[in-house]
Amino acid sequence: MKNGGIMNKRERIETVILYGVFICYIIFLFKIFILSRVSLVDLLNSQRTLQRSINLIPFYSIKEYIFSNSATIRSFAFANVGGNIEIFIPLGTYLSLFKTDKRVITNLLYIFLVSLFIETIQGLFGIGASDIDDIILNCLGGFIGILGYKFLLFILRDYKKVRTAITILSAIGLPVLLNILFVVKLRL
Fold first, then answer.
1. How would you label 173-185 residue by residue, b for 16+ Cβ within 10 Å and e otherwise?
2. Is the dihedral of CA 154, 94, 187, 113 positive or negative?
3. Which residue among 18, 66, 74, 169 sits deepest, i.e. has the most Cβ atoms within 10 Å of its Cβ?
4. Which residues, given as ranges, of the chain have pLDDT below 70?
5. What is the pLDDT of residues 172-187, one digit of tens each?
């Protein structure tokens, strides 16, 4: 910021883009984890049959995927494991960028709490499966995002350049995110 905290035009545009994409990302998480298997109307329907699946044994699901003889299960496993990692990479990056406390452990705690919240909601509302392995994989994805931020900071050696780079990556990623949300038409 210049002149005692006044942002220039480029910084204001970056801020709008970053927070706009971050809001879209949060909506995307909600849609993927909460509304991908049940509509909002069905979610609030008290007569809906709940189908709960809960795994509290770390690495149990991952082990089942690895040792399965079924090509279908292995294919699902790859998408599930990869997806749970990939979907939380942006959260680690954005937390590192937005928060003044840049400690890895603090940001990992936030990522853990977000993931735990999502898995708890899925379990309480009977949406998909609540799985400790998902929390582990989400935290791994968030950690990769944090490392990506740290790597950019190491390479570019300037917070403003990192912010600009993440803004550009966010602007590129937004159409992909919107495509997944609206063109693919996950259930609302």
1. eeeebeeebeeee
2. positive
3. 18
4. 1-5, 180-188
5. 888 877 776 666 554 4
